[in-house]
Task: structure prediction
Amino acid sequence: MKSLAITVFLTLLVTNVQAASKADLLAGEKLVKTHCISCHASSFGGDGSGIYTREYRKVRSFNGLKAQVTNCNTMLNLKWFDDDEQQVVQYLNQAYYHF
Result:
């Protein structure tokens, strides 16, 4: 009986973590579309997404991605919370970088 309860608990825990991850990715995507794409399009051209995939991109690691998102947040005075930055980092990593 204990093993069944543990199995059910772990299944629910994993399901909640996956749901939270999807929510974080969607929130990050929304922030990118609202705040990042227009700036990147004006400075890089096109729809702005090429800035993430260009051969000579600045971001070369997960820590570099986190630092760049923080830099943009600070320089553009977006006033994002740490959670917002993390959601953007997770979205960009999943969508473009794959670190």
Observations:
- Confidence is low (pLDDT under 50) at residues 8-20.
